[in-house]
């Protein structure tokens, strides 16, 4: 399926966030199959292609093995579920990716358990800011339409918090104080959720 999508015109495909290393699809085999599909599609189209390989695992050591193997295969990007994998693991992967020329795509699997409850939990703007501090090149941000629809102004507010160096206080957008990120790199918001 990866090859067919890339050959058909997509630039990137991705593992589902639930795809880890199940008995029917071990991570190493999946990485090899995806690498083969990418190289074949690139050779046939003359275009750069990629696949977000899910490096999330039960331990940081396992995640690093997956990141290192992706690099050995010449893959341009890996994916991490930062809420299920943890912030320390995410920072470790982020540092490795920066040092080794890999992009790190961040998935927000499990966020709804934390941020969709109005009476308790942690708002996604806080989770997005924590991710920006932890590291990652892009993060699923939801959308203002579709199945992961959020309030338009609030969604645009946390999109600003992810990417802009300076964000002014704007209560309508859910920004309760001016945020100056100084030299801290941003995270590209990626629309998600259909």
UniProtKB/TrEMBL annotation:
Query: Record's PROSITE patterns?
Result: RUBISCO_LARGE
Q: Which GO terms describe its biological process?
A: reductive pentose-phosphate cycle
The subcellular localization recorded is: Plastid
Query: Is Transmembrane included in the keywords of this UniProt record?
Result: no
Q: Which stretches make up the Ribulose bisphosphate carboxylase large subunit C-terminal domain? A: 1-194
GO CC list: plastid
Reactions catalysed, as given in the entry: D-ribulose 1,5-bisphosphate + O2 = 2-phosphoglycolate + (2R)-3-phosphoglycerate + 2 H(+); 2 (2R)-3-phosphoglycerate + 2 H(+) = D-ribulose 1,5-bisphosphate + CO2 + H2O
What one GO molecular function would you report for this record?
A: ribulose-bisphosphate carboxylase activity
Q: What is its EC number?
A: 4.1.1.39
Q: Which UniProt keywords apply?
A: Calvin cycle, Carbon dioxide fixation, Lyase, Monooxygenase, Oxidoreductase, Plastid
Transmembrane portions of the chain = none
Query: Which major enzyme category is it?
Result: lyase
> What is the protein named?
ribulose-bisphosphate carboxylase
Q: What is the lineage of its organism?
A: Eukaryota, environmental samples
Gene name, Swiss-Prot/TrEMBL = rbcL
């Amino acid at each position: 399926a990866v090859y067919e999508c890339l050959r058909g015109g997509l630039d990137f495909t991705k593992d589902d966030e639930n795809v880890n290393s199940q008995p029917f699809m071990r991570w190493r085999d999946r990485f090899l199959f995806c690498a083969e599909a990418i190289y074949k599609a690139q050779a046939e189209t003359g275009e750069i292609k990629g696949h977000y390989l899910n490096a999330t695992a039960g331990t940081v050591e396992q995640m690093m093995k997956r990141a290192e193997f992706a690099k050995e295969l010449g893959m341009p990007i890996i994916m991490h579920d930062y809420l299920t994998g943890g912030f320390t693991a995410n920072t470790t992967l982020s540092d490795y990716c920066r040092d080794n020329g890999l992009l790190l795509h961040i998935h927000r699997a499990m966020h709804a358990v934390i941020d969709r409850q109005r009476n308790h939990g942690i708002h996604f703007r806080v989770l997005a800011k924590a991710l920006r501090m932890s590291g990652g090149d892009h993060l699923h941000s939801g959308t203002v339409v579709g199945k992961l629809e959020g309030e338009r102004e609030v969604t645009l507010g946390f999109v600003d918090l992810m990417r802009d160096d300076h964000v002014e206080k704007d209560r309508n957008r859910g920004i309760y104080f001016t945020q100056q990120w100084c030299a801290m790199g941003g995270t590209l918001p990626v629309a998600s959720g259909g």
